[in-house]
TrEMBL record:
Its EC number is 1.11.1.-. This is OsmC family protein. Keywords: Oxidoreductase, Peroxidase. It holds the Pfam family OsmC. GO terms for molecular function: peroxidase activity. It is an enzyme of class 1 (oxidoreductase).
Length: 141
């Protein structure tokens, strides 16, 4: 049987919502004052980018552990272009993987990124259906 996720998103008044997750945690969603909200939560489209970075980041972190790679710091910068026409969506997304450390194994870290991008990350695959993706790996020594 197929796996399903069931999410409940509850209106909190105004433009604010609270949404849950199978983990049991909740996230607040809202828009800024320019769109009638109070800015008290995450913006829905931006949350998609966090989901993308988080999904791929988990893959890379798992592979770094498995390959016993030395990394002092690791962050993902996600820069997305929103279309002008409604419904607005991301048509181009640049994902930058930044690795910091004195003993970075660049070859293996690149392999970890490639495996996430090409094979493991389901959110990446979803984004690939509607956006042009640009992937960059940057090493800081």
């Amino acid at each position: 049987m197929a796996t399903t996720n069931h999410i409940t998103t509850k209106w909190k008044g105004g433009m604010a919502f609270e949404t849950n997750n199978p983990s049991g945690h909740t996230v607040n969603i809202d828009v800024g004052p320019e769109d009638g909200g109070e800015g008290s939560g995450f913006r829905p489209k931006a949350l998609m980018l966090s989901g993308l970075a988080g999904c791929s980041g988990l893959d890379v972190a798992m592979l770094m552990k498995k390959m016993k790679l030395e990394v002092d710091d690791f962050q993902i910068e996600t820069i997305a272009n929103l279309t002008d026409e409604h419904p607005k969506y991301y048509d181009k997304v640049r994902i930058e993987y930044h690795f910091h450390g004195a003993n970075l194994n660049e070859e293996k870290l690149q392999r970890a990124v490639d495996l996430s991008v090409e094979k493991y990350c389901g959110v990446m695959e979803m984004f690939r259906r509607f956006a042009e993706l640009e992937i960059k790996t940057i090493f800081h020594k």
